[in-house]
Amino acid sequence: MAITTTKSAFRKGLADAAPFVLVIIPFASLFGILATEAGLNVFETLAFSVVVIAGAAQFTALQLMQEHAPTAIVLASALAVNLRMAMYSASLTPYIGSAPLWQRALAAYLTVDQSYVCAMAQYEKQPDMTIPQRMAYFFGCVTPIVPLWYLFTLVGAMVGAQIPESWALDFALPITFLAMIAPMFRTPAHVVAALVASVAGLLTAGVPYSLGLIIAGLAGMMAGAQTELWLERRQPQHPEQDAV
Questions:
Q1: Tens digits of residue pLDDT in 174-196
Q2: Which domain holds residue 82?
Q3: Tens of pLDDT along 120-148?
């Protein structure tokens, strides 16, 4: 259904992001539980989610903190995991870069994997959306995601060890990322990047302080970039014909 008003754009964003609620709740709860088990109090755990608002980076930092990694390694690893946000921002800029400053600032804070995936898919599908409609859609996407991330981080931190291990809430982490990245495999370069990163991650699993994650990410990005260059070179060239 084509978006014609800002209200319909907001409702569409809300509906498109709603399925992620099924994994955000256990995902956030798991972070709250693990953070308190790692020694953070309830306030510190909630502040972690509010300030950072990046699940993958938070879990990475938390794991390294539990391994007593040096602070520099914790910060560098979390930053490396979150570098994808810079790429998200760069690809969103052509669509919402002319929005008012306060909206862009708020969108920068609220750019998470789910809002980015939904927004880019919608913007590409309906390129004639106005800037207000695009912003309304974006904010609709984060409405069911961000408040629940805060709330269930708090719930997990308060409940803590009372949740039995048999509940296996950690299933939410891989399912969330699989649900987000699967629709993005639209080109051979995407597939190559994912495969190389996966293999490199397995081969470097024993690297101290989880630095294998950074190595795998860099390997995947380089492989994807080289694949794109190789495909571009193989495309037939069509030199422009001289005007008569």
A1: 655 565 566 556 678 778 888 88
A2: 6-184
A3: 999 999 999 999 999 999 999 999 999 99
Q: Phi and psi of 215, rounded to 5°?
A: -60, -45
Rounded Cα–Cα distance for residues 35 and 42 (Å): 9
User: How is the chain split among helix, strand and coil, in percent rounded to 5?
Assistant: 80, 0, 20
* Averaged pLDDT for residues 112-117: 88
What is the H or E stretch that residue 169 is in?
Answer: none
Q: Are residues 213 and 158 in the same domain?
A: no
Give the predicted TM-score (pTM) of the model: 0.72
Say which residue, 128 or 57, is predicted with more confidence. Answer: 128
d(CA 121, CA 193): 20
Please give the Cα distance from 138 to 72 (Å, whole number). 34
Note whether residue 127 is domain-resident.
Answer: yes
User: How many structural domains does the chain have?
Assistant: 2
- 236 to each of 3, 129, 187, 226, 242, how far by Cα in Å? 38, 34, 18, 18, 19
**DSSP at 243:** P
151 in a structural domain: yes
> Do 190 and 137 sit in the same domain of this protein?
no
Query: What pLDDT score does 62 carry?
Result: 81
